[in-house]
Structure formats: structure tokens, C-alpha cells
Design a protein that fits this description.
By secondary structure, the protein is of the alpha/beta class. The chain starts with 14 loop residues before the first helix and ends in an 8-residue tail after the last strand. The strands form two sheets. Strands 2-1-3-7-6 form a five-stranded mixed β-sheet. The chain has a two-stranded antiparallel sheet with strand order 4-5. It is globular, with a radius of gyration of 25 Å. Helix content is 60%, strand content 7%. Helix 13 crosses helix 15. Among the domains are: 248 residues, no CATH class; 132 residues, no CATH class.
Length: 548
């Protein structure tokens, strides 16, 4: 029997219409996204997928072809989130020869994952709130999460795992005292482990869940050990899923987490200034303002829950589970934000914060219900919903279809990769920073010079100023530089005869020895805009590695 805990009568539109509109919106978003994956020109897809997307595709292709978890085909790496990588491996069994088709298939999988996440969310909300509230939540979810999270990164599979955890916890009554069997909590813990494999910094969600389960168990006199069986089952289930991956990383690479996390974090030494600079550079002030507003909302929600909702012991039902889940999510994103501000020092991207948007889209259910109950809400709800849908459709249609006239970084690196595939030998080795797009589409062995899909030993090479020797040992023939206007102005304006490039160790904060750049060795040049005019240049450096 469905639990409907609101006594107010559904406002306009009628509940039946709201229900049909909810399903129609999710289906329409799925159809539009899948059509966009297959019907648009591929360069348009490149414009909305970050370079890091193709780290996943390249490593997944190598795993599918039996080479192991390697990006460059030379060194094994831990620079990926495992669940999305494993999800991509079958794509290369189905289409091993068409890279563009593999990308379209991967993005289609993401659209399907986000659609399933929407279904799971609706399965909970429709048993907790009126269909008009559900429709409002789905509108926000569709346009702030669904249609923007098809980006090739781990985002979609992370959100699906979070939605599955949310839905299973609802049906298993995980937060409703001791009404959930230990076996169900163990399965809940395993799902939590899957969430962590989707993105390891969701460990903060795990910490919040354990706190919300353990504290009530500890406050019941005489039954502490019995009640702690539930939290222990959750912890055991999560550990069973996550520990094999962490142990493999530790035994193979010397660190439990991905190397990218090691390079981006200053833990245990706080670095708020570096975090601020990274957020401004890669997230930007407008998006930071939105994230800050979500965090303020999370604080108010958590305070309200602790002061009001948690004390309502008479209604331990679907509504209580929902509010507890939102409080847990609020706590987890606040912990994540605190960690980001204190310890993240480099390469902080928007997709790191998608759980914030998921929280916001779900947590508006309670205030939306209150607003609908007012006279103003009853009078304007239908018009407001229609306006938001129209604005979302038009805004995202423009975002997905506008191509622009400028050649941007994704386009220039893709075209350079096609040039490399046609004009160089399959045995040739390249080296550059921001390697994903070029490495995947060139089908050449490409060493990543910023280290995120390389090894920790490479950081020692940079720190010891042995990069030239490293290039020789790995038979690097071509060096690629894609940011010249500031670092190498002579290369940019083509007034140089010799120049040099150095590379930073993001682990030690030191610079490598210089690599010679000779104009006589330049074999490819293209101009792009990102965000200002710059050049993408390839040199044949095989003739010598001496210092200029």
C-alpha cells in the first residue's frame, strides 16, 4: 500500500496529468539525448565532452584488447574511476574498429543510465509526495542533471548508483530504526560500495551514512550491541565491494586510490589558496555561486532535519526516510566541499560536483510541497512548470546544437590525432599534456605528461629532472605542445629557432629538465581558440635530446 503523507488536495494540474507529464518528460529527454548521440556531426559531440572523457575510452579499449589498464600502452595506470571504465569495456568488444561509434555508444549508455536513475527517483517520490511535487522534482532533475550529465565522464554511472542506493534504502527501510533486517543492510552496504567504485570521493557519503546509522544505535540503552549489527553490516557490505580494488591499487601502484587523486590532493596539508585558484580556473565564478547556494541550502536542510524532522518519532514512514536521506546527502556534500576547499590543489572540474545538483533537485520536494499548498502556488504552479520546461528545452537545445565558428581545443586535438594516424607509424610514441582526445583518436602510444594517467614513478622522473632520459628509454619520437601563447611565445609567433619545454610534477611541485624544441623539427601546426587564440604544435624530437 502506498504511503501518501500529505493531506492537502493536489493543486492544478490534476494528479493524473502530472503523472503523465512526469513520464513524458523523462522519455522525451532520453529520446532527445539518444538522437543527439547518433544524428549530430561528431565534432559537435567533441565540443561537449571534456578531454578527460577519452582517458576512460582509451584505457577501456586497452583492457578490452588484453593490454591491461594502461593509457599509453607502455605503463599500467590507476588513473580512472573503476565502475565507468568497466562499463565501457564491452563497447570495444562490440565495435573494436570504429572509435567514433564507440563514443556514441558510450554516451548512449549514459543517457540510459540517467533515465533509469530518474525512474528510481520517481519510484520513491511517488510513494512519498503528490504527483505534482514529483513533476516539479523531475523538471529540475531533467534540466539540471539528466541532460547535462551525458558528458562521457563517470558522472552518469555515479548518479545511477546513487539513485539505486536511494531507492533500495527506501524499500529496505534502512533508516527507520531497527525495522530493516541485517541482510538488507548488508545489501545496502554493497550498493554503497558500488557508489564508491563509481567515484571514490563518495566516501564522504559513506561516512555520513555510517554516522546517521551508528548514532541512534548508540543512544538506545541496553541494546547497543544488537543495534550496531546494522551499521556493521553496511560497513561490511561496502568493504566487500571496495577493498579488492583498493588492495589491487596498493599492491600494483603503491597507493590505494587513483593516481589522479594523489596528484590533485595536498592532504594532510591544507592548501585553501591553491583550491581557490583551481576552482576559479576550472569551475568559474558563476558555477561556484550556484554551488555555494546549494551548500547553503544543504546547511539549512540539515539544521531543520536535526531540529524538527528527526524528533518526529510518531511518523517513521516514507516521509521520514526521505528527509533522512536528504540530510545524509546534505552532510556528505558539505564534507566533500570542506575537503575540496582544504585539500584539493589542482584540476577541480564541474563534474566533481554533480551529486550537489542531484541533492538540490531532490531536496526541493519539501519546500515545493509547501509552496503548492499556498494560494499563490495553486494559482501559478501549472504555468510555472510549463515555463520551466520550455526554458529548459530551449536552453539545452541551444547548448546541444550550437556549433560556433571557432576551432576549439577538442576540435584541434581531434584533427591533429587524425593527422597523426595518417602520417605516422603505429609504432611511434608521442608525449604531451592533456592527452585524452589526442591519445584515443590517434591510436598511437601517447605518454601523458601531466601524470593523471601515468605512474607515480613518472613524478619521480620529473622531480629528478630526468625527463630527457625518460623519453629516450621510452622511445618518444614526437612531442606535442598545445599551450604556447604564454609558455612559449616564440613558438606561438613563429620567431623561434630553438626553444624548450619543461613540465611540472604535480606531486612534488618541481619542474623537469628542459626538452629542446627546434623549428626544423616542427611537423604539424594548427591554431585554435580556448579561451584565447593559441597553437597546437607537433615536433619530431628523435634527432636529439640535448638541452638547448
Amino acid at each position: 500500500m502506498q504511503s501518501q503523507s500529505t493531506d492537502i488536495r493536489d493543486p492544478f494540474p490534476p494528479a493524473g496529468l502530472a503523472r503523465h507529464a512526469t513520464w513524458a518528460l523523462l522519455v522525451a529527454a532520453l529520446v532527445a539525448l539518444v538522437a543527439g548521440c547518433w544524428l549530430v556531426d561528431f565534432e559537435r559531440i567533441l565540443r561537449r565532452t571534456p578531454d578527460d572523457t577519452y582517458y576512460f575510452f582509451q584505457i577501456a579499449e586497452n583492457v578490452a584488447k588484453g593490454r591491461g589498464p594502461t593509457f599509453d600502452g607502455i605503463h599500467l595506470t590507476s588513473g580512472f574511476q573503476p565502475l565507468w571504465l568497466l562499463s565501457l569495456v564491452p563497447v570495444f568488444w562490440v565495435c573494436p574498429d570504429s572509435l567514433e561509434t564507440a563514443v556514441r555508444m558510450g554516451l548512449t549508455m549514459q543517457a540510459g543510465a540517467l533515465f533509469l536513475a530518474g525512474l528510481l527517483i520517481v519510484s520513491v517520490l511517488s510513494r512519498t509526495f503528490s504527483w505534482n511535487v514529483v513533476l516539479g522534482v523531475v523538471i529540475v532533475y531533467t534540466f539540471s542533471v539528466f541532460v547535462v550529465a551525458v558528458n562521457g565522464m563517470e558522472t552518469a554511472i555515479e548518479l545511477l548508483a546513487l539513485a539505486a542506493l536511494f531507492a533500495f534504502g527506501f524499500h529496505a527501510k534502512v533508516f527507520l530504526g531497527d525495522s530493516s533486517a541485517v541482510g538488507k543492510k548488508w545489501l545496502f552496504g554493497m550498493l554503497l560500495g558500488v557508489v564508491m567504485l563509481a567515484r571514490l570521493d563518495t566516501v564522504f557519503l559513506g561516512a555520513a551514512i555510517m554516522a546517521f546509522l551508528t548514532w541512534p544505535a548508540m543512544t538506545i540503552p541496553g541494546r547497543r550491541l544488537r543495534n550496531l549489527a546494522g551499521p556493521f553490516a553496511v560497513f561490511a557490505g561496502a568493504s566487500l565491494v571496495v577493498l579488492p580494488y583498493l588492495l589491487y591499487n596498493h599492491l600494483t601502484f603503491g597507493k590505494m586510490g587513483p593516481i589522479s587523486g594523489t596528484l590533485k590532493s595536498s592532504f594532510p596539508h591544507p592548501s585553501p589558496l591553491l583550491a581557490w585558484q583551481a576552482l576559479r580556473s576550472w569551475v568559474g565564478l558563476p558555477k561556484m555561486a550556484i554551488l555555494f547556494a546549494i551548500l547553503v541550502f544543504a546547511v539549512f536542510y540539515l539544521v531543520w532535519y536535526l531540529a524538527v524532522a528527526r524528533k518526529d518519532t510518531e511518523h517513521r514512514d516514507a516521509r521520514f526516510y526521505f528527509h533522512t536521506s536528504m540530510a545524509v546527502m546534505a552532510c556528505s556534500i558539505l564534507l566533500h566541499a570542506l575537503h575540496t576547499i582544504l585539500f584539493m590543489k589542482w584540476a577541480i572540474w564541474t563534474w566533481h560536483f554533480f551529486p550537489y545538483f542531484l541533492f538540490a533537485s531532490l531536496a526541493i520536494a519539501a519546500p515545493l510541497e509547501r509552496w503548492i499548498a499556498t494560494r499563490l502556488g495553486r494559482a501559478t504552479y501549472g504555468w510555472a512548470a510549463a515555463f520551466l520546461v520550455l526554458a529548459g528545452v530551449l536552453g539545452n537545445f541551444y547548448r546541444l546544437t550550437a556549433t560556433g565558428s571557432e576551432i576549439t581545443w577538442p576540435i584541434v586535438s581531434y584533427r591533429a590525432a587524425l593527422w597523426a594516424r595518417e602520417h605516422t607509424s603505429p609504432s611511434d610514441v608521442f608525449a604531451l599534456k592533456d592527452t585524452g582526445n589526442f591519445g584515443f583518436f590517434s591510436q598511437r602510444r601517447v605518454i601523458n605528461l601531466d601524470g593523471v594517467v601515468n605512474t607515480l614513478e613518472f613524478q619521480d622522473v620529473l622531480n629528478a629532472r630526468r625527463l630527457r632520459a625518460y623519453f629516450q628509454e621510452n622511445h618518444v619520437k614526437y612531442l606535442v605542445l598545445h599551450s604556447t601563447v604564454e609558455s612559449n611565445p616564440g613558438v606561438f609567433d613563429q620567431t623561434y629557432e630553438t626553444d624548450s619545454a619543461t613540465y611540472r610534477s604535480n606531486l612534488y611541485g618541481t619542474m623537469s629538465d628542459p626538452i629542446a624544441l627546434r623549428r626544423s623539427g616542427e611537423v604539424y601546426r594548427a591554431t585554435y581558440t580556448f579561451p584565447v587564440k593559441d597553437d597546437f604544435v607537433i615536433w619530431d624530437i628523435s634527432s636529439g635530446m640535448d638541452t638547448p
